[in-house]
Hints:
elongated; 2 domains; alpha+beta
Amino acid sequence: MWLRIKIAFRNAFxxxxxxxxxxxMIASAVAAIVVFEGFTHNMISGLRETTVxxxxxxxxxxxxxxxxKKSNKPKQNLIKSYQRxxxxxxxxxxxxxxxxxxxxxxxxxxxxxxxxVRIITLDPQKEVSRNKHFxxxxxxxxxxxxxxxxxxxxxxxxxxxxxxNSNVSILTHTYDGVVNAMDFEVSGIFQTDIAxxxxxxxxxxxxxxQELLDTTAVEQIVVGLKSSWDTTMVKDSVxxxxxxxxxxxxxxxxxxxxxxxxxxxxxxxxxxxxxxxILMALVLLSIMNTVGMSILERxxxxxxxxxxxxxxxxxxxxxLMEGLFLGLGGVLLGILGAICIAKGFxxxxxxxxxxxxxxxxxxxxxxxxxxxxxxSLLGLGITILAAVIPAHRASKMNIxxxxxxxx
Length: 407
């Protein structure tokens, strides 16, 4: 057995130039897969963290009518017992914060300029960790002792020419349909890097929003966890709590709500799959060509060993081992190349703007063990598969015709 492996190793590098070319192609494919996976993972992780920390929280609670959007009367979607729900939820040590939330539209005015905006509440007292995740380009975050201040998205501030300490007015309808307005001071200009959010969103303290809308209730309850890994388990615990308070309140995870995240994640998954398919197809054709050329050059040799009593399986094994050695060399070189590429890009801090982003982000590549394993298995699997087809054909050669080939 060891002798066969030794012979296969020597045969694999008999034509060094051709073998090195194939190893380089396999290495390029493996490195590309690891780098693409690491880049998209880092980008998606950043989007997930931004979405959870600045928009959805890990869990959101609301009445069934709110989720199903069956009611045309927003007042029917209000959770009147939300304080009791929040108190019960905070008994769970895995929950970092739980706070009421209102989301509505209004008219933001500065002087003669006005614009329709999405207004989202934030409880500065209870949602301290969430409040810290908004990156402020100017001014400060909302504070519990400054109820008549609002924070404005960077894109929205640019459209209306707002700066920190600017005076603005908000006009909206209460849940009873009455027009109400309040004057505010802009506490700061925030940026989340999600253009859709930054261009249209304004943050307002929860209690102030309740006063503006003339209500003491909330539409949703946002729950933030200490660890994202606990999301599913805490969701089950929250359901049990809600069953004893108000069974009509339903809980959803951030993933069920985050439409943009799901779209971007799915797009990148499909894109990576297509790239991997193309790369592996190129490797498959390359290895098949190499093994095919090797078989053609060694037809007489194959006939000789078959005439000496070597079985067909032994011939197939010989070429499979040769393909495996090429694959191992390519995989090891590819992993090393991926690590070097990742370190190089991470050190250069290259900015790039993605569709839907409000600001450039730096290219960061995370070398994942899962990506290395996936690329290695794909590389070795394709290499072995590419060697099987011509090797099987070689084992079925007519011995007499094979012996005549080199005469």
